[in-house]
Fold this protein.
Amino acid sequence: MKSILITLDISHKETIINMLEHNNCRGFSFLDQVQGRGSKSGEPHYGSHAWPSMNGAIIAVVDDNKVDKILSEIKNIDEETPQLGLRAFVWNIEKAY
């Protein structure tokens, strides 16, 4: 099993959730109002007067064989609207209950 942390501009929420459901990824959590700033480009998302937009994050636990397809779809979504910000990070799940 792998965990995918997806950080996203809040406007991507529905698209990413639909993509996960389309790939039969039932186990995920959405974290609302995540603040942050991308490492390469883009505007900060702090929810403040100066930087009012917000991020979200989704943590999904998926089978190993689904990771590459999901990352590819996330990359395609990001390339359509690179100014919004969308990233995914993967790590191993050692144990789960």
Q: What stands out?
A: DSSP finds two helices and four strands in the chain. The mean pLDDT is 89.
